[in-house]
Amino acid sequence: MLCHLRYEDVFVAAVRTAPHWKRDGGLTVREMVATARRLGRRLLLVNWHRVDLDEHVGILGVNWNKPEQQQAHGHWVVLREGTIIDPVGPDVWDADEYLKTNNGRVGTLLVER
Questions:
Q1: Mode of pairing for the β-strands spanning 75-80 and 43-46
Q2: DSSP string spanning the chain?
Q3: In angstroms, rounded to a whole number, what is the distance separating the alpha carbons of residues 113 and 95?
Q4: How far does CA 2 lie from the centroid of its chain?
Q5: What is the value of pTM for the model shown?
Q6: What is the pLDDT of residue 111?
Q7: Who contacts 74 (Cβ-Cβ below 8 Å, separation ≥6)?
Q8: Of 5, 6, 102, 108, whose Cβ has the fewest other Cβ atoms within 10 Å?
Q9: How far apart are CA 39 and CA 31, in angstroms?
Q10: How far is CA 41 from CA 2, 3, 53, in A?
């Protein structure tokens, strides 16, 4: 969606890059970058303290604050200039409200070069 690629194409590339990802609970940052590269896209990592929720567009890592959430390694959502699209729902949220409601904090952001 963010890189204007079909879901099926991304899925196939992800399986080729990291065949274990479905049973291990998702892709690592390195595997996401490699999957994007396989599809002809270059992703740049933005450190969490440089992320501007209202200005940036990319794939945002969300880290959880509650101890019971810590068993999950985090979650990836689409950030688009103040709006978060969560693929689990799928839901669309104001970015600040999403983090507050879900007790999360900003993690790494992947942006297209």
A1: unpaired
A2: -TTS--HHHHHHHHHHH-TTHHHHTS--HHHHHHHHHHTT--EEEE-GGG--TTT-EEEEEEEE-SGGGTTS--EEEEEETTEEEETTTTEEEEHHHHHHHTTEEEEEEEEE-
A3: 22
A4: 10
A5: 0.86
A6: 96
A7: 61, 62, 63, 64, 107
A8: 6
A9: 12
A10: 11, 8, 22
**pLDDT tens, residue by residue, 1-30:** 567 888 899 889 999 999 887 777 788 899
Residue with tokens 């007790």: 103
Give the Cα separation of 24 and 83 in Å (integer): 28
pLDDT above 70: percentage of residues in the chain: 91
The Cβ of residue 78 has, within 10 Å, a number of other Cβ atoms equal to: 17
Structure tokens at 6: 């079909």
Separation of alpha carbons 82 and 104, rounded Å: 15
